[in-house]
Amino acid sequence: MGEIPFPRGVRDLMPNEAIARNYMLERIERVYRSFGFLPISTPCIESLEVLKAKDVIGEENKLIFELKDQNNGLRYDHTVGLARYISMHNSMPLPFKRYAIGPVWRMDEPQRLRLREFWQADVDILGGDPVQADAEAIAAGAAALDALGIDYTMRINSRQIVDALMAKLGVESEASTVMRIMDKADKIGMDGVAKELEKAGISGDVIDGIIAFVGIKGSNGEKIKQIDNMVGNSDSTSEISETIKMLGKYPIKGKIVIDTSVVRGIDYYTGIVIETTDNTGKGGTSSICSGGRYENLVSRFSDTKLPGVGLSIGIDRVLDIINFSSSEKRTYADVFVAWIKEQNYEYALKSAIGLRNLGINADINNANRNISNQLSYASSLGIPYVAIVGNSEQEKEVVKLRDMESGSEEELGLEEAAKRISQGL
Could you tell me if 291 and 141 are in contact, meaning their C-beta atoms sit under 8 angstroms apart? Predict the structure, then answer.
């Protein structure tokens, strides 16, 4: 049929890549569970009425994958499904701590570190004390990145601070436009921000104030003082100050910094806003972990006003940053059971099943090939041990366990073989 068509913005994973991703997902889920977050499962398909309810994801509605003639779409993120879920199942005890790991879809223009189908690992806390919940969610995301060995900086801002600045500068009516331009600071630089603000009709004095605000430098404490002086009061910085102080109680390895240029999610975030970049520079300015506090999301689907805070790790971006395609682990098998002659197969199968029952991941030769080819096959997959079965081993009810690295061999019963394999892994 010639060249096989393949969709843009999606990708196949080779076994070593899929294993690397599974390893990452397992580590993240273990961390989330350790914080007491609970799993729920929501469908990949949601009603368009839910996905587009009162512009729940704002201007990015255009990125929703719509299913033709179905009035449904693929989920854009895990948060909308959570808001819909909690509105339908409102008997959950509060605060409700939930995690979700899985694929989401966006009709975006594919490019490096930006796919149309990608995985996210979310935590959300609905209800509870805002400062404590914000710190707990941020710390959970940080602990997950720590478990993956990522060198990162979490950049934190607050909508309360930005709203106070807009009021101080007298541009509340143009706030959405101004904040969208401010959020481009990483990509277009301060000069670019100034030019775009000018094009948008913002006055020179206001532009100077915004540039000064975005360019605030110093320690977190010094930034708080500068912000207070700039907006004229400390009320807007009280929550972020307390959250930063609370985060100091957690054993976080990455950097936590206040960054006044972070103004993402302006359509629904109402408090803390988080963007995380890796410190290696491999991800550029792309965020690998982001989120924030939302007050009104659940109320879009019910009369209940249930504030929450959420954070999401971009699995595919982290995978690309750590160059997961170079992973050398190509199998889960700890041992490959090889057999000499066809009459040895049933005993080889019995041995493989026995090893599996003893907690060893055991592959078995399922092809008519000689022992040399079987050893080459096991070596090509990086399987550390081969259990060889011939007439002699079958009669003695043992296996000849070969260490593929050293080449040493010894005859062992299944329990001894399993113990030796476990010790060598």
Answer: yes
